[in-house]
Structure formats: structure tokens, C-alpha cells
Amino acid sequence: MNVTIGGSEWGSMILCAAAALNDKRESINKLNVFPVPDGDTGTNMSLTMASAAEALRRNTPAKLGEAADLVAGALLRGARGNSGVILSLLFRGAAKSLKGKSECTVKELAAAMSDGVDAAYKAVMKPAEGTILTVSRVAATAAVKSAKSCKNIEALLSVMITNAEKALELTVEQNPVLKKAGVVDAGGKGYVTILRAMLECLEGTFVVSESAENRDAADFSAIEDEEITFTYCTEFIVARESERDPALLRAWLDSAGDSLVFVEDDEIIKVHVHTDQPGQAITEALRYGALQTVKIENMRNQHSEMSIAQSGEAEEPEFAPAEKETGFVTVCAGEGLRELFASLGADRIVTGGQTMNPSTEDILREVNRTPAETVFVLPNNKNIIMAAQQCIPLTEKKVVVVPTATVPQGIAALAYRDPEAAAEGLGESMMESAETVHTALVTYAARDSEFDGYEIHAGEYLALLDGALLGSSGDLSALFDTVNEKLRELDPAVLTVYYGEDVEEDDARQVEKTLSAAFADAEVTVISGGQPVYYYMISAE
């Protein structure tokens, strides 16, 4: 039994927590009640914790304060999605409490966990109960109360787990959405998973499942350089949650690109492929289950950068000195959307969005490469806003996050800004422009679900308006009737349709005709966005 723990023990506990989240992430993902494809909680928490594990594998300080600080820093930069950011805040607050300590006692660890909860609550603008915040708070409060009676760290963690599990069971009653679905909070479940892994680590009983150990078994390092036939090097891991034959995915990928490496086991499918259709490849993969990781790189850009370096020309700096007062970083996926944002004045573009939530580090990299004093960041997804906000203390540049929740909001924010305006107050005016836009989305249901009175089946077309579910159907025309009915209530003057990578232009033009007939007084425009996941994004102004 451990009366105290130092840096080595803390590092081992975090490594076990990362392995446990990786192993359990699909069961956590399944607690996400909204059936829209998204960067699910289990995946985001797992990828966030994996960043800390990677840092610890390079170096695990012997002193607890240093180890806790290393973990907190890695989590901050690797945070993905709201759940990942909150997780990083919990460990950041704990690290501040443990700063300067070689080891800590039971009482000191309880205080540190409590300080972590305080830090998370302070950072979240509108903390909601029935979430990971509730579960972590109840666990930390119990730890502080029991610290005197607990004779070792294991006993303290046992108290935390017992109370965290009780709090987790209550989340179904505290959150109306969870109550409708009859499930507990996914983030809270992830936090309980972390605590249990930390305890099992100290007890010497932690075991990683064989399937989890094999998930990173594929080795892509042997792939040799070659003539660039296809533009995008695409790598991803997708869970095997359906009975669909992986051979169908292999055949599709083989027809859509080259340099294919395809590895599967009972739990996951891991893919490397060079293709011009990365979004469609991901869409095909989502038929098998939720994405675990994804990386898309433009090989032509990489080749150009290498050629420049070899010719003696300067490489792009990691930190661009300010050449102007304001600059803009935006998040999106899809070549058409990238080109549109660039034409509207975006300096840097982070590839990501739904199902591909970028990390704080991904966003920070582009912020630092923007040659401006003040950099405005447009997340264009509600699950990316918090990760973007974490960039603020990590750079010398002034960062202003404009909390755009959809791509059409981000387009409006950039398009309608005053190009001559000073940095002060620009963020507020950009958000005012964004809030004039309503966003309708047509995608597909990622899972079977009963949500808000709708019975939804995986694979059906699914429509939303400003985040609210409108319904689902196997008939796209019928679903558009529902979308048009709701849009009429808004009396739009301008409708812009961004069609996705999986949509043929002729089909998009048919949607244009349908909208033009339904909204005779509105200006209707159709643009190829090339985005994955969403067949159509409709901006109504």
C-alpha cells in the first residue's frame, strides 16, 4: 500500500488511465445520445489522455510536481472536444496544487483533486450538472472529507470511485437529455474509468485487454516515398461496430487510391491510403463504427515544402512575426470550404470539424503561423470552441475566439467583417454577423436512437436546424420537405447550399430548384463545399 506517491507512481497511473480509456472508449461513445456523427466523448477523452501518455513515455520525472506538470501541459495541448478540455482542466488544477512537491500524502492528493475540480468549474462559462463536472466534484469532496481516515492512497481512490459511481448513476436524473435516453453521462463514465485505472495501477491489478494492445500493431513506417499520384495521405482507425464485411471497405479504398495498408482485428480497422477523396474514405469507414483517430496530410504541399528546403529557401516559420494588426484562423473540412475561407481572408485553416475535432495543439500551431498581432479563431463547431480557447495562454500573440458553432456562421463572420476595423471590438461584431445565420444540416444517423420523440435508425438521412433535430427518413426528398417547412418560419432572404463530397452536382442542382420553388423571393446559391459527413449545409439569412 502507498502512503505517499511520487512522480514515477503518478506517471504509471496516468499511463494506465490512458490505456483504460483507449480500451473503453467505444462503450463510452455509445452513451452519446445524439445520433449525429460527431467527435464522441470516449474518443476525445482517449485521444486527450493519449497525449499525456506519449509525453510520459519520453520522460517521467521522479518528482511528483514535475510529473504532474508534464501531464497537465500535454493534456492542455492535446485536448480535443469539450470533454477533453474539461479533463485537461481537472489535471491542470491538480498540478498547480502539487507544484514543487517530490511526493504527496493522502491529504495532499485529496486537496489536489479538489483544486482540479475548482479549476474546471471556474473555466467553464456555464457549468452544467449531470456531467463530468458533477462526477469529479462529488468524488473530490468525498476525498477531502475522508482524507484523515484513509491510511493510504489506494483507500482514498476507493472512496473517490465509490462516490463517483453513485454520482454517475444520478446523472441520468440530472440531465433531461440523458433522462430521455435512459443513459448516464459519457464524460462522467470516462472519469470513473480513469479513477479505477489509477487504483488498479497502484494495486498491481491493472490489465490492458489484448485487443487494446493490438490496436497500434500496424506499422506504416515501411511505406516508401513514391511519385505523388494522389494528393492526400489519409490514415485513420475506425471501430468495428457493425457486421459489415471489411473486405468491402478494402475494395473501395483500393479503387479510390494507392499505397493502401489495411489492418483489422475484432475491435478495429486501421487504414493508410493515398487518395484524392479523404472525406469520402472516412464516410465509407463510418459505416463500420466510430472514428478513433484520423490524420490527413496534403502530400503535394509536403513535397513543395521539402523542395523549398532542399533548394536553400527558408522554411515556413513555426512562429510568424506580426506583419499586420489582425489575422484569422478557421476550422473546416472540404476543399471547397477551404478555398472559400481563404478567399474571405482566412490566413490559416485547421483541417477538422465533425468527427475530426482538432486538438488545442493543432489550432495553436496555425495561430502561431499567422503573421498578425491579434489572431481571431473561428472554431465553427460547438465541440471545438473550448479547445480553441485553451490557446489563449499558450502563445505570445493575442488570441480572440469567435465562438462560431457552424461553418455557415464562420463564413458569415468573415464575409461581413469590416476589413478596416481595428482589433478591439472586432470579435463581437463578427459574432453578431454569425448570429444572423441559421444553419440547416443534412447528414446521416450514426446509430439507432430514440431522441426527442423520434425513432431513428442508423444510416437514415437526418436533418437538424440550429442544432435541433428535425427528423430522419430513408427518403431524402421527404426529409427536405420537413427542412423547407422549418425554413419558411425564418422567412430567409438568402439561402446558400454547401454540398458535400458524397453529393453529385446534379443532385445539388435539384436541391437548388426545390429551394428556389419553395422560396421564390429568396436568393438561392449552391456551392461545392466538399465537406465529409454532411451531405448538405444550408445557410439561411
How would you summarize this macromolecular structure in one to three sentences?
It contains 20 helices and 18 strands. It has helices at 7-29, 41-58, 64-78, 81-98, 106-123, 132-146, 153-174, 176-181, 186-203, 210-213, 246-256, 278-285, 299-310, 335-343, 360-368, 385-389, 407-415, 426-434, 476-488, 505-518; strands at residues 5-6, 103-104, 232-239, 257-264, 268-275, 291-298, 324-332, 348-351, 372-378, 398-401, 438-444, 449-451, 454-456, 461-465, 468-473, 494-499, 523-528, 536-540. The strands form five sheets. A six-stranded mixed sheet has the order 15-14-11-18-16-17. It has a four-stranded antiparallel sheet with strand order 4-5-3-6. Strands 8-7-9-10 form a four-stranded parallel sheet, with helices on both faces.
- State the strand order across the main sheet: 15-14-11-18-16-17
Unreliable parts? 210-227, 302-314
Largest sheet: 6 strands, mixed
What is the oligomer described by this structure? single chain
Strand content: 15-25%
**With helices defined by DSSP (H or I, 4 residues minimum), what is the helix count?**
20
So what's the overall shape? globular
Mean pLDDT: 87
The N- to C-terminal Cα distance equals 63 Å
**How many DSSP E strands?**
18
Alpha-beta content class:
alpha+beta
Radius of gyration: 24 Å
Helix content: 40-55%
